[in-house]
Amino acid sequence: MRRLWLTFAQAVTISVAVLFVLTTLKPEWLKGTAPSSVVEILEAPGAASASAAVAPGSYAEAAQRSMPAVVHIYTTKDVARPRHPLLDDPIFRHFFGERQDNAPPQRASGLGSGVVASPDGFILTNNHVIEAADEIEVALNDGRKFPAKLVGRDPETDLAVLKLEGNGKLPAITFAATDAVEVGDVVLAIGNPFGVGQTVTMGIVSALGRSQLGINTFENYIQTDAAINPGNSGGALVDSHGNLVGINTAIYSRSGGSLGIGFAIPVSIARNVLEQIVSTGEVTRGWIGVEIQEITAELAESFGLPKVDGALIAGVLRGSPAERAGILPGDVLLSVDGTSVHDPRGMLETVAALPPGHEALFRLRRPTGEIELKVQIGRRPTPPAER
């Protein structure tokens, strides 16, 4: 037995030695053995490993968390057919008489996106997505479709709230903190561009507080370079954890496609509008009835102002709360209830946030010096388009 063991050990030793010599001196003789890679390749982990940890640089978890809460919105409405030009031609009317155009109206369809804001079925979207719609249908991410009713809308922020009835609990999105987003943060835009189906695009927050774009009355947009295209309106802008930071609303484009400049309504504004519409069916804002103007360096010099700060009262509406309180054209508004006003947008937002009937203390600058006036806040009139 001992001799057999020694013979086996010697055979193994000789075989290992021969293999080492061949590998070192004549590797081409071993071409028939198992192949080996000449480049070190980093392979993706298996399914078990991938589920345990998210790969660096991947936003799959954020997308999977938020995508079920983003819905597709389909609208239809009646549109009058264009009148045939011959019916207005005097020669045609001379020979054929007055004729009525009795063609039935056309059915126009539109599409957009929305965000499930609560498990109870309240959905946030843009006002321009559902404006003048006769019928609204919502398609969930899992393919189910339900009719939706309009709860309320706010044209001045371009937001609207829909409600799905009797469909159980829905996959609602998680709202991010109001001040959680910063310039440079990675964000994902989720929606239904061009009707191709749910799509996720990635970018960063390019800027905050974008205003004076001429889109809406109240503008405080998040600017992002995440691709936003027609059909994305009303969809979700989420952070790298899948939390809602904004509602995609508009793009800057010369061609109609994405050029890397998109705008989203911050979640703070969307949440305020949602809560007011759900509780009262409308959005109530404060109003004092003045026309305001930005103070430029030229205006500051002509008015003898020490710095370019505040909001210039350019006009006062007759019978308005501002006129009753004694505010005059040419006054410069500095603060409202202790909140400093640096520009017209700040003044508009500060006054709008006050409840009607509240008596606020306005600090103004006049050529004779600074004064303080008490103004009873009125209710902002309903925009003509909403009446």
TrEMBL record:
<dbReference type="GO" id="GO:0004252">
    <property type="term" value="F:serine-type endopeptidase activity"/>
</dbReference>
<keyword id="KW-0645">Protease</keyword>
<dbReference type="InterPro" id="IPR036034">
    <property type="entry name" value="PDZ_sf"/>
</dbReference>
<dbReference type="InterPro" id="IPR009003">
    <property type="entry name" value="Peptidase_S1_PA"/>
</dbReference>
<dbReference type="Pfam" id="PF17820">
    <property type="entry name" value="PDZ_6"/>
</dbReference>
<feature type="binding site">
    <location>
        <position position="158"/>
    </location>
    <ligand>
        <name>substrate</name>
    </ligand>
</feature>
<protein>
    <submittedName>
        <fullName>HTRA-like serine protease</fullName>
    </submittedName>
</protein>
<feature type="binding site">
    <location>
        <position position="128"/>
    </location>
    <ligand>
        <name>substrate</name>
    </ligand>
</feature>
<dbReference type="Pfam" id="PF13365">
    <property type="entry name" value="Trypsin_2"/>
</dbReference>
<feature type="active site" description="Charge relay system">
    <location>
        <position position="158"/>
    </location>
</feature>
<keyword id="KW-0574">Periplasm</keyword>
<feature type="domain" description="PDZ">
    <location>
        <begin position="277"/>
        <end position="379"/>
    </location>
</feature>
<keyword id="KW-0720">Serine protease</keyword>
<keyword id="KW-0677">Repeat</keyword>
<dbReference type="InterPro" id="IPR001478">
    <property type="entry name" value="PDZ"/>
</dbReference>
<feature type="active site" description="Charge relay system">
    <location>
        <position position="233"/>
    </location>
</feature>
<comment type="similarity">
    <text>Belongs to the peptidase S1C family.</text>
</comment>
<dbReference type="GO" id="GO:0042597">
    <property type="term" value="C:periplasmic space"/>
</dbReference>
<dbReference type="GO" id="GO:0006508">
    <property type="term" value="P:proteolysis"/>
</dbReference>
<dbReference type="InterPro" id="IPR041489">
    <property type="entry name" value="PDZ_6"/>
</dbReference>
<dbReference type="InterPro" id="IPR001940">
    <property type="entry name" value="Peptidase_S1C"/>
</dbReference>
<feature type="binding site">
    <location>
        <begin position="231"/>
        <end position="233"/>
    </location>
    <ligand>
        <name>substrate</name>
    </ligand>
</feature>
<dbReference type="InterPro" id="IPR051201">
    <property type="entry name" value="Chloro_Bact_Ser_Proteases"/>
</dbReference>
<keyword id="KW-0732">Signal</keyword>
<feature type="active site" description="Charge relay system">
    <location>
        <position position="128"/>
    </location>
</feature>
<keyword id="KW-0378">Hydrolase</keyword>
<dbReference type="InterPro" id="IPR011782">
    <property type="entry name" value="Pept_S1C_Do"/>
</dbReference>
